[in-house]
Amino acid sequence: ARVLEIARRLSRGEALGTGEEEEEGCQRHREPLEVFCKEDGALLCAICRESRAHRAHTVLPVPEVVREYQGQIQAWLQTLKDDRDKIQEFREAEIRRNW
């Protein structure tokens, strides 16, 4: 859910409220947010990226993360749509059977 919210806000060009940044960038260092920490699900500046808290974590450039998560979200959405269609077909069959 958090990744979905981040992807939505990034696609709308909004600032993300993960606690470490504000509209101008990283709240601690006043640097632009350049990478996404996959383990923590947070945007990081270059200084935060090199801190002990994130040094061993997997980080990716924001545009790459957006593309990756958009693909995953689209796949999940298609699965949900397929499941919904199956449920609707089953419901309609049950209604016909009851008549």
From TrEMBL:
It comes from the Eukaryota. GO terms for molecular function: ligase activity; zinc ion binding. SMART domains: BBOX. Residues 21-62 form the B box-type domain. CDD domains: Bbox2_TRIM4-like. Keywords: Ligase, Metal-binding, Zinc, Zinc-finger. It holds the Pfam family zf-B_box. This is TRI41 ligase.
